[in-house]
TrEMBL record:
PROSITE patterns: PROKAR_LIPOPROTEIN. It comes from the Bacteria. This is Uncharacterized protein.
């Protein structure tokens, strides 16, 4: 019995040592990855930091700095940025029960539109967020921003003199068969909401 136990222990020790050996390959043809201690890693870029109290409870959205190359035409670059409006949960468009929702639309120079709805209802312990990645373009003739959703629906915003956006509900509801079918099954915004451009 003692001989059997010692062979068993010897086998476990060998396996443990082999598993800890960085040059041990579990499969033929795989090369061992070199081990780099954390102290040897170099930081290539200084990243500004913020205190937790500055970012706690703040939703994270793509920054205009995140876009490297402009895809939208030069005339449209004046309109990239973050736009926001508070919408009551009484409007079925934002799909919440009580309280309000922040509807946030971030237009980036690469042509992406980041649409977020942050729910601030009283029944929830904290804020909840729905996020959608869309695409946008500027219609110079109509002086409108058009957001193209992944499901084919297009949302139209009139641009005012202060570069804020107002939903064009009539056009949203009737512009295409896709929009008409979608809004026959889903709620259209109750109002032509006015989205204010953020200063930052």
């Amino acid at each position: 019995m003692a001989v059997h136990c010692s062979k068993w222990l010897w086998g476990i020790c060998c396996l443990s040592l082999a598993a800890c050996d960085p040059t041990f390959n579990s499969q033929e043809g795989e090369e061992a990855q070199p081990f780099t201690p954390v102290a040897d890693l170099q930081v290539t870029e200084d990243v500004p930091s913020k205190r937790l109290s500055e970012v706690a409870g703040q939703p994270v959205f793509p920054s205009a700095k995140d876009a490297d190359k402009a895809v939208v035409p030069e005339a449209a670059l004046a309109y990239f940025g973050r736009y926001q409006v508070k919408i009551s949960c009484e409007d079925a468009y934002v799909k919440c029960e009580t309280g309000t929702a922040d509807f946030i639309l971030t237009l980036l120079p690469d042509g992406t539109a980041h649409r977020s709805i942050v729910y601030l209802g009283r029944v929830m312990a904290g804020a909840q967020m729905n996020y959608y990645l869309d695409y946008w373009m500027y219609d110079e003739t109509a002086h409108q921003i058009i957001v193209h959703r992944s499901n084919g629906v297009e949302i139209f915003y009139d641009i005012d003199d202060t570069q804020n956006l107002r939903m064009d509900l009539e056009k949203i509801a009737t512009v295409s068969t896709v929009n008409q079918q979608y809004f026959s099954r889903n709620p259209l915004p109750a109002h032509a909401y006015y989205l204010e451009k953020s200063a930052d």
